[in-house]
Amino acid sequence: MNILVTGAAGFIGYHVCKSLLDKGHRVVGLDNINDYYPRSLKFSRLEQLGIEEDKAKNFNTIVESGTYPDFSFIRLGLEDSASMDKLFNEHKFEIVCNLAAQAGVRYSLENPSAYIESNIVGFFNILDNCKRHEIKHLVYASSSSVYGLNKKVPFETTDNVDHPISLYAASKKSNELMAHTYSHLYGFKTTGLRFFTVYGPWGRPDMAMFLFTNAMLKGDPIKIFNNGDLERDFTYIDDIVNGVVRIIEKPVADDEPKYKIFNIGNNDSVKLTDFIETIEKELNIEAKKEYLPMQPGDVKKTWANVDDLVSEYNYEPNTSISVGIKRFVEWFKAYYKI
């Protein structure tokens, strides 16, 4: 298939591109390569896909991969409506996988306008181009953050999600509402995926796995919020990608519902203290711990019910925390030459 993957230089986007290419699909990757975290990591991911850094730096220019004949990349922001329209016109995509977004719960308190531009205006441009260019299926990233102050666990997609506690979460809930409207009005399929705490090789530097490992190796204290009384449904990247690609590859049936939402997680909840202990064992380092109160916008516990995704797509999250952390640490040491 001919597939557009946005956020291609991001953590999940890079892995999804690689998996699709390895399966023989034609992929165009898009990313604005912003400076939310060091661009060097984003360029390094693209280099794994055969895109040279010097060429990837240029805006609005298609760059062909030197490794994958069926991969090309364009540096472009979703909010650039004219360039987005041109891209859709030229490439005649069948499927769009929108993983591009301004990420981060805490950063949304510092720079809220970035979330409106990318996650609201940008997502509107994605939806409108899907409508005008007759895209068969839009698969897009939502977030477990939409559950907000929900106390019932595990989280189910039938739960009320009307109480987000960060602008990031509100923007993701808005994406789901916008997608519902476009599916209802224009009849194309949209599938939203509520990701739960994804970790693994090539992960984001603002996520707990990366922050803890980096601090421990440097001998710096790690920051533990809510005095360690937190639980997360940590989900290994390979399990996430497996689910995303299965959804992309499944043919769209005419008689199925056009709008769907799924949780995509590990179907388990792990105490943050246990997660830290596993990293300590893998590094053979006892962490220096700085206990702090709950951060604004944070939630105490996440846990995904993924029964719908299992039954419909045979989704199989099966990577244990110990295996996932081991693989991340191996990558981290190799990438940073430790």
UniProtKB/TrEMBL annotation:
InterPro entries: Epimerase_deHydtase, NAD(P)-bd_dom_sf. Residues 3-265 form the NAD-dependent epimerase/dehydratase domain. Gene3D superfamilies: NAD(P)-binding Rossmann-like Domain, UDP-galactose 4-epimerase, domain 1. It comes from the Bacteria. Keywords: NAD. CDD domains: UDP_GE_SDE_e (cd05253). This is NAD-dependent epimerase. It comes from Flagellimonas alvinocaridis.
